[in-house]
Amino acid sequence: MKRIFLIEDDPKIANLLKEYLEKYEYSVTIVQSFDRIINEFTESDPHLVLLDINLPRYDGFYWCRKIRSISNCPIVFLSARDSGMDQVMAMENGGDDYITKPFNFDVVQAKIKSIMRRIYGEYAVTKQADFIEINQFILHLTSMEIEYHGTIASLTKNEFILLKEFVEHENQVLSRTHLLEILWDDEHFVDDNTLSVNITRIRKKLEDIGIKDSIQTVRGAGYKLVNTWG
Amino acid sequence: MKKFILDQLGNILFFYSQWVLMIIIVQIASRFSGTTLSAGILFYLFLLPTCFYLVFLVFKYFKQRDFYKLENVASPHVGLPEPSNHLLQILRDQHDKQDSEYQEKIEQLEQHKQLEIDFIQQWVHQMKTPVSVLHLTIQKEKMNLPESFADSLYEEIEHLQQGLDLALYQSRLQKFDRDFHVDRISLRSLVNESIQEFKTSFIRTHVFPEQFIDESIDVATDAKWFRFVLHQIITNAIKYSKGHSEKISFRSKTDSQTTTLQIEDYGHGIPKQDISRIFDPFFTGMNGRKFRESTGMGLYLSKEICKELGHEISVESEQNAGTTVSITFTQPKV
Question: Could you tell me which residues carry 4-aspartylphosphate (chain A) (predicted)?
Answer without folding.
Answer: 52
